Write a sequence for this structure.
C-alpha cells in the first residue's frame, strides 16, 4: 500500500482515509461533474492531461503505482491548472475490484497494459475474462471500455475476452479520443509500431 503523504508528494495525489473502504468519489474532486472516467496505468499522463483539458465537464482519475511517474503527471496537471484530474497510487486491479463505488464510472481507459509476452506469464495479464465482472460492477449502464496495445497476441486476447462477454458490444471511439496519444504510443509510433485499438460498451441493463 502507498506510504503516508510527505511534503514531496504530488498535489494531485489523492490519499484515501482507508484502502479497505470504497472511495468517496465526491471527495476526490473539487467539483462535481457529469461523468467520471478512469485511466488504468496512467504513467506520466500525457493522454490523461490532454483528454481532461478537452473535457472540463468530466472528472478523470488516474491509477498508477510508480511515484516517479505520478510526479511527472502532477507537474503537467499543475502547469495546465487542471481541476478535473486526480491520481490514486495503488495497484490497478485492487483499486478496480475493491475501491470503486458500484455503477459509478462512465468509462475506463486501459492503454498499453503490460503484455506479459511469455506464455507462462499470461495469467498476470490485466485484460482477461476475470476482469469482465469487476468492470461491470463499477461501470454505469452504457459505460465504455477503451483498449489499446501494441502486442498482437494480447490484442487477440482482449478481443476474445470482450466478445465472449454478452454484456458488452463493440463500438467506435470518437475522433476526439483517438487523436490523443499516450506516452508509450508516441514512442511506438516513432519506431513504426502501430496501435491496436478496441472499444466496448456495457448494455443498458
Amino acid at each position: 500500500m502507498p506510504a503516508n503523504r510527505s511534503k514531496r508528494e504530488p498535489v494531485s495525489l489523492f490519499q484515501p482515509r482507508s484502502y479497505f473502504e470504497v472511495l468517496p468519489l465526491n471527495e476526490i474532486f473539487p467539483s462535481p461533474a457529469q461523468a467520471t472516467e478512469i485511466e488504468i496505468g496512467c504513467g506520466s499522463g500525457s493522454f490523461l492531461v490532454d483528454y481532461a483539458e478537452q473535457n472540463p465537464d468530466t472528472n478523470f482519475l488516474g491509477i498508477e503505482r510508480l511515484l516517479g511517474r505520478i510526479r511527472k503527471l502532477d507537474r503537467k496537471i499543475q502547469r495546465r491548472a487542471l481541476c478535473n484530474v486526480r491520481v490514486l497510487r495503488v495497484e490497478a486491479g485492487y483499486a478496480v475490484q475493491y475501491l470503486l463505488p458500484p455503477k459509478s464510472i462512465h468509462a475506463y481507459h486501459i492503454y498499453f497494459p503490460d503484455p506479459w509476452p511469455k506464455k507462462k506469464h499470461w495469467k498476470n495479464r490485466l485484460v482477461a475474462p476475470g476482469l469482465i465482472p469487476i468492470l461491470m460492477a463499477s461501470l454505469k449502464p452504457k459505460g465504455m471500455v477503451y483498449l489499446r496495445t501494441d502486442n498482437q497476441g494480447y490484442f487477440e486476447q482482449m478481443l476474445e475476452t470482450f466478445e465472449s462477454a454478452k454484456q458488452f458490444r463493440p463500438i467506435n471511439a470518437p475522433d476526439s479520443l483517438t487523436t490523443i496519444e499516450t506516452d508509450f504510443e508516441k514512442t511506438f509510433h516513432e519506431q513504426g509500431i502501430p496501435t491496436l485499438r478496441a472499444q466496448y460498451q456495457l448494455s443498458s441493463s
User: Anything to note?
Assistant: The longest strand covers residues 139-149. The CA atoms of residues 5 and 147 lie 32 Å apart. The chain has eight helices and seven strands. The two ends are 35 Å apart (CA to CA).
